[in-house]
Specification:
This protein is of the alpha+beta class and 155 residues long. A 5-stranded antiparallel sheet has the order 2-1-5-4-3. The chain is built from 3 helices and 5 strands.
Length: 155
C-alpha cells in the first residue's frame, strides 16, 4: 500500500435462518386436520415449504418436468397466486377439486406467499353434517302446540 492511504474497515453481519423450523412453528399450526394443507411459495415461484410433498421443496413452478404433471395439469393457479396480494379460488389436482386461499407475507423486504388448500368434498361433508345437526336440533326442541301462545282476543 502507498504511504498515507487510509484503511477502511468493512463490517459484514449475517444470520442463518432455518426456514423449515420457522414454517414448522408458524405455518404448520394452520393445518387443522389431515385434509387441510398449508404451504409456502417464494415471490419468485419456488416452493419453500410443502410438508406433504417434501420432494417439491426448492423446486420452481416455472421449471417443471414430467414428475410435476403426475398430479398437476398446469400451474396457472400458482401463477395467479404470485400475481395477486391475496387469492381465493379453486383448482383440480388429480381427481379432487381443492379450495385455495393465499396471502402475502413480507419480512424485511422478503416476500412470500402462505397458501392453504382443502378438498371441496371435505367442506361439503362438514356442511351436510351441520345441516343434519340443525334438523335434529329442530325436531328435538320443536315446541309443542300446548306451549305456543294463544291467539285469542281479549275483550
Amino acid at each position: 500500500e502507498k504511504e498515507g492511504s487510509e484503511k477502511k474497515m468493512t463490517r459484514i453481519s449475517g444470520a442463518v435462518i432455518n426456514l423449515n423450523q420457522l414454517f414448522e412453528r408458524f405455518v404448520k399450526p394452520i393445518m387443522a386436520g389431515e385434509k387441510l394443507s398449508a404451504w409456502v411459495m417464494s415471490s419468485k415461484g419456488s416452493i419453500l415449504y410443502l410438508p406433504h410433498h417434501q420432494q417439491m421443496v426448492n423446486k420452481s413452478i416455472f421449471k417443471t418436468d414430467n414428475t410435476c404433471f403426475k398430479c398437476h395439469k398446469n400451474f396457472s393457479m400458482e401463477r395467479q397466486i404470485l400475481e395477486s396480494r391475496q387469492f381465493k379460488g379453486s383448482y383440480r389436482i388429480k381427481r379432487r377439486v381443492m379450495l385455495v386461499s393465499s396471502s402475502t407475507a413480507e419480512l424485511h423486504g422478503i416476500s412470500f406467499k402462505v397458501i392453504t388448500s382443502t378438498p371441496l368434498v371435505a367442506i361439503a361433508t362438514r356442511a351436510r353434517l351441520s345441516y343434519l345437526y340443525i334438523i335434529i336440533l329442530f325436531f328435538y326442541f320443536k315446541p309443542s302446540s300446548a306451549s305456543l301462545p294463544s291467539h285469542e282476543h281479549l275483550t
